[in-house]
TrEMBL record:
Residues 5-348 form the Aminotransferase class V domain. One of its GO terms (molecular function) is O-phospho-L-serine:2-oxoglutarate aminotransferase activity. InterPro entries: Aminotrans_V_dom, Aminotrans_V_PyrdxlP_BS, Pser_aminoTfrase, PyrdxlP-dep_Trfase, PyrdxlP-dep_Trfase_major, PyrdxlP-dep_Trfase_small. This is Phosphoserine aminotransferase. CDD domains: PSAT_like (cd00611). GO terms for cellular component: chloroplast stroma. Gene3D superfamilies: Aspartate Aminotransferase, domain 1, Type I PLP-dependent aspartate aminotransferase-like (Major domain). Keywords: Amino-acid biosynthesis, Aminotransferase, Pyridoxal phosphate, Serine biosynthesis, Transferase. The keyword Amino-acid biosynthesis applies. Its EC number is 2.6.1.52. The keyword Amino-acid biosynthesis applies. Its cofactor is pyridoxal 5'-phosphate. It comes from Chlorella sorokiniana. Pathway: Amino-acid biosynthesis; L-serine biosynthesis; L-serine from 3-phospho-D-glycerate: step 2/3.
Amino acid sequence: PHGRVFNFSAGPAVLPLEVLEQAQADLLNWRGSGMSVMEMSHRGKEFQSIIDAAEADLRALLSIPDNYHVLFMQGGASTQFSAIPLNLAADGDAVDYIVTGSWSKKAAGEAKKYAKVNVAATGDNKSIPARDSWNLSADAKYVHYCDNETIQGVEFKGAPDVGGKVLIADMSSNFLSKPVDVSKYGLIYAGAQKNIGPAGVTIVIVRDDLIGNARPITPVMLDYKVQADDKSMYNTPPCWSIYIAGLVFAKMRADGGLAAALANNEKKAKILYDAIAGSNGFYNSPVDPAVRSLMNVPFTIPSNPDLEKEFIAQAAKQGMIQLKGHRSVGGMRASIYNSMPLEGVQQLAAFMQKFAAQHA
Ligand code: PMP
């Protein structure tokens, strides 16, 4: 409907049609306030009710324990690459990073400016190094990893066991895609623009005892204690992004929460991985089957990489867009976040089969 395509973009990505329609209905006059959410004071009762409801729904979805703060921050997930060491480690403190792809590598690179980074394990961009090979440092302030590598399509299937260490996860590209035991983490962060809303807001879920130790040079906007004390309103928050994310949270609760989201995501991902596996080698997934992402499905045409361009172009002509792999890895990538409809994935799998038959 509405001439909309199936959008396989890695982000910003597809949002639920119902949410967009609700935003459209609210646009000129949000619930009788006489203004749009973009125009209202962030200090007014209207916006306060929006951010309160968003936080409450997010807490309910993830069963976030009371000793965790939910912060609505800005600057994208990339800004958290700096905020984390600035808040959780002193100059010269050891911090551990697990590198399983491009984003965890970037996070580690940024942290090097602020702390003594120990890369405790480095993957081959297709798999996750066995836990017993990780070389964690005894005195690390935290262990950082990326739960889903958006570019490589490598996803952890549960929180890694780091003993009593503070575990930090970048969940930017699989946030709210599955149930998560928040109590296993010291901090979880995620940019919004994949699973939950427009770019502009970054969710930080942080345990209470970890805040309040930011270095004196930490920019005030990145100080978790300031953001927690001011309820994410030290300055003007990204009101519109929070509002849309709130609509997504409410819809997800109504649709059965994270267990339902996981079931949908498993079903959709299986259709694509089965299409690859059933292609007699025409398509290849480079990723270890044990850690294949439910969100980002990279694949190639190994016998004839020149065909990949044609695949992407033909798919686009049929309304399936943004299937090009990340510029750093090439090939194709289908990002199938929570809001990608089942029909989109079915249509892509059917197209893959037809394309293979034409070119095999
Ligand atoms: N981490 C992951 C896993 C990502 O996928 C991305 C964005 N693609 C980022 C971090 C960076 O996010 P942002 O653009 O919000 O800074």
